[in-house]
Amino acid sequence: MSHSLYPAETIAAIATAIVPQEGSVGIIRVSGSRALEIARRLFRSPGQSSWESHRIFYGYICNPNSGSHVDEALLLVMKGPRSYTREDVVEFHCHGGIMVVQQVLDLCLQCGARLAEPGEFSLRAFLNGRIDLTQAESIADLVGARSPQAAQMALAGVRGKLASPIHQLRNTCVELLAEIEARIDFEDDLPPLDEPALLQGIETVLSQLTELLNTADRGELLRSGLKVAIVGRPNVGKSSLLNAWSQSDRAIVTDLPGTTRDIVETQLVVHGIPVRVLDTAGIRETTNIVEKIGVERSRQATEEADLVLLTIDGSVGWTAEDRIIYDQLSHHNLILIINKIDLVSDPTSLECPNDLHIKVHTAAARQEGVDRLEQAILQAVNAGQLQAANLDIAINQRQTAALTRAKLALEQVRATIGDRLPLDFWTIDLRAGIQALGEVTGDDVTESILQRIFSRFCIGK
Ligand SMILES: Nc1nc2c(c(=O)[nH]1)N(C=O)[C@@H](CNc1ccc(C(=O)N[C@@H](CCC(=O)O)C(=O)O)cc1)CN2
Ligand SMILES: Nc1nc2c(ncn2[C@@H]2O[C@H](COP(=O)(O)OP(=O)(O)OP(=O)(O)O)[C@@H](O)[C@H]2O)c(=O)[nH]1
Ligand SMILES: [K+]
Ligand SMILES: [Mg+2]
């Protein structure tokens, strides 16, 4: 990616998903000083002599070389600075499908636009001051959200619910810094520094930073979700559990041990957490070459999982084979699934290892126990905080790292004041805190941070 920090060039990209036969409308977005000129060359709107901003026009897209019609379409005109990028923006709303959309994009490129890099429209919105970095990150989160709650959280970020408190904290720190620096530069002309007020200001910033940092785990859960592997010996009911949970026939179930060979994956949402569930091949020693590969894949999936559902057959009880699998999983976050309890008269009497403190009874073939399983998952990942209603924002890993640095810097300021070190020392740490906060909002940002953030975006965003 080679984003130009000097957005002189006009950029163009397809802004909608391009799946053949799907998506009835396709949008080509153009931003930059030549956007209107390009639209004028390509778009014919009968009866419209001039294009008012923020209106949509009906007409035809024509190839200016041959004069032939490319599509019947709509043109949206948004003159800067009242646009997503704050530059002149035009959008061609075409018939969907790849053929028309690709031709219109090519025509835009022939007329002098350059193909946009992933995230480049949003990068311009940031560079031109329409959004800050937390809002840009939230836009990417919104597009990538895998649960309604994750989308809700991202939208709060788009609307500035994270930007505004962090801007405020940074402003407070800048004011405190100015107070101290004034005493360094013009000590004699000013009343003495109000130290209790300064310390109070630092305490307030610190407690708000702590509050923001407390949202990190929730943010991570909602954004990244969980990978959950169903693991166990053959025929205990792993695939039946996947089917019961996803209310589908996603996985093949038979009474033959060794039915599942490849990983079977499905996407679910558990109380707002996007969950990828992997059903795996039953683990056993086998000479069958296909099954052997399946068992190897099962081990691999287990390694990558955030949470493992070790499944056993309750009608048989805890066996030596279960123990062998369990011993290999000891370093994982684990839930024990005791399945087929419909065949057991007293499920509580089953002997299992005591250190497996989360146990769930299920009868997967009868779709029983899914609610208990979901509650156990919330417990295993400590998601109680997710329910807290007043938290509509949550910070991401990058923000967590920077806010942690800001917090350490402010704690250092507090300690420096306590140790009666000279004023210069106070300002050094306070400046470090301001810089860390500026990294979050983008007030203080390097090109490599921008590169990392905007390259995550999809094309046309
Ligand atoms: N067709 C289309 N749909 C879209 C977008 C788009 O670019 N095109 N968006 C793109 O992601 C999202 C909407 N977000 C947008 C955000 C800001 C502005 C905008 O023009 N803002 C200006 C002017 C606001 C005004 O007129 O008052 C501004 O904030 O200065 C447009 C879209 C989702 N839907
Ligand atoms: N009674 C009863 N039978 C079950 C239950 N769950 C699964 N079974 C049966 O157990 C057999 C094996 O189920 P599967 O879901 O294929 O088991 P698996 O663990 O995926 O097996 P492999 O893929 O071969 O490792 C099937 O005949 C299921 O109908 C249950 O809760 N109760
Ligand atoms: K089976
Ligand atoms: Mg199976």
Automatic annotation (TrEMBL):
Mg(2+) binds at S239, T260. K(+) binds at N235, T254, L256, T259. InterPro entries: G_TrmE, GTP-bd, GTP-bd_TrmE_N, GTPase_MnmE, MnmE_dom2, MnmE_helical, P-loop_NTPase, Small_GTP-bd. Coiled coil: none annotated. Binds 1 potassium ion per subunit. The keyword GTP-binding applies. Its EC number is 3.6.-.-. CDD domains: trmE, TrmE_N. Homodimer. Heterotetramer of two MnmE and two MnmG subunits. This is tRNA modification GTPase MnmE.
